[in-house]
Design a protein that fits this description.
about 15% strand, about 350 residues, TIM Barrel, Enolase-like, domain 1, 2 domains, about 45% helix, two-stranded parallel ribbon
């Protein structure tokens, strides 16, 4: 068989140690954009197929870290400038469905968001208490197996309906004592339950219009602050309609934009969604990630910096979220070290900023 079942990284490492090294050795690490640009030209493909996004991004982030160290600045301040003191609202995936779980739930992620916290450490405390309260509720109702955690630390209980999941989370929020502070976010990952015509959700086949109405109903019924990928990845029209009908809700584009500025500018032009999910390793370099974030912010779109389902213990996205003044960070449940590493880094940043630190208010 292949090394690591075909998932080995020797080729990417080889590219870093030869092709990329030969091109950038001796460059000034403070010239981030220039170095990123060199690597993109060296690769020569639109999706970094030659060198690999993992090779390019690894070098790109290492360059930023080296520059920050050279200038004796914290990473978030080096990337974002001296005006960085805002901490993002964490959106924590606490309950899983879709292809992240073996249950019958159509919606992939149910998240909690401590909007009403006064600072980041209080936000994290609220989230952790709510998460563990939810675990207890699920265990009491469905047995011990219901609290096994998925990739991102969320529980995957044998729940079938969206409303049952939302009821369990709402109860957990109330029991933890945070009815007014903690809101809910959904990531539908709707491409996964779209069949080309209709959306199959909770055993029902819905047209885009019917699904739109269902979201509006859910937002009325529950304390839902955000909806991510509510429709399939090419459904710009449906995104636009939902964004118009729910002006107070954060409508996040992930699969529809894939952190790509061309797709994002199309969305902006149409008014499809009002927030960008920013996955640094999806676009594959720090400069390009910054460009996507700036385009979003210039056009009044919110930015949510995100982890990936499979993660490492690297904490750079915590610094990036502060550097960009991102409204939110999405990096899993308060469980599993590769998720908690990001939260711990944000706690350190808040400590370091001291009185200057501000927690995002939406």
């Amino acid at each position: 068989g292949e090394r690591y079942n075909g998932k080995g990284v020797q080729r990417a490492v080889e590219n870093v140690n030869t092709t990329i090294r030969n091109e950038i050795l001796g460059q000034d690490v403070r010239h981030q954009r220039e170095i990123d640009q060199k690597m993109l030209e060296l690769d020569g493909t639109p999706n970094k197929a030659t060198l690999g996004a993992n090779a390019i991004l690894g070098v790109s982030l290492a360059v930023a870290r080296a520059a920050a160290n050279t200038l004796n600045l914290p990473l978030y301040q080096y990337i974002g400038g001296s005006n960085t003191y805002s901490l993002p609202i964490p959106t924590l995936n606490v309950l899983n469905g879709g292809k992240h779980a073996g249950n019958k739930l159509s919606i992939q992620e149910f998240m909690i968001q401590p909007h009403g916290a006064r600072n980041f450490h209080e936000a994290l405390q609220m989230a952790a208490e709510t998460y563990h309260t939810l675990g207890k509720i699920l265990e009491d109702k469905y047995g011990k197996g219901a609290t096994n955690v998925g990739y991102e630390g969320g529980y995957a209980p044998p729940i079938q309906n969206t409303t049952d999941a939302l009821d369990a989370i709402t109860t957990a929020i109330e029991k933890a004592g945070y009815t007014n502070e903690v809101k809910i976010g959904l990531d539908s990952a709707a491409s996964e339950f779209y069949n080309g015509k209709t959306y199959e959700i909770d055993g029902k086949k819905l047209t885009p219009e019917e699904l739109t109405d269902q979201y509006i109903e859910l937002v009325k019924q529950y304390r839902i602050a955000s909806l991510e990928d509510p429709f399939h990845e090419d459904a710009f029209e449906s995104f636009k309609e939902l964004t118009e009908k729910l002006p107070g809700t954060i409508i996040i584009g992930d699969d529809i934009f894939v952190t790509n500025t061309e797709l994002l500018s199309k969305g902006i032009e149409m008014g499809a969604a009002n927030a960008l999910l920013l996955k640094v390793n999806q676009i594959g370099s720090l400069s390009e990630a910054m460009d996507a974030a700036r385009m979003a912010q210039t056009n009044k779109y919110k930015v949510i910096v995100s982890h990936r389902s499979a993660e490492t213990e690297d904490t750079t996205i915590a610094d990036i979220s502060v550097a960009l003044n991102a409204e939110m960070i999405k990096t899993g449940a308060p469980a599993r070290s590769e998720r908690n590493a990001k939260y711990n880094q944000l706690l350190r940043i808040e400590e370091e900023l001291g009185k200057a630190a501000q927690y995002t208010k939406l």
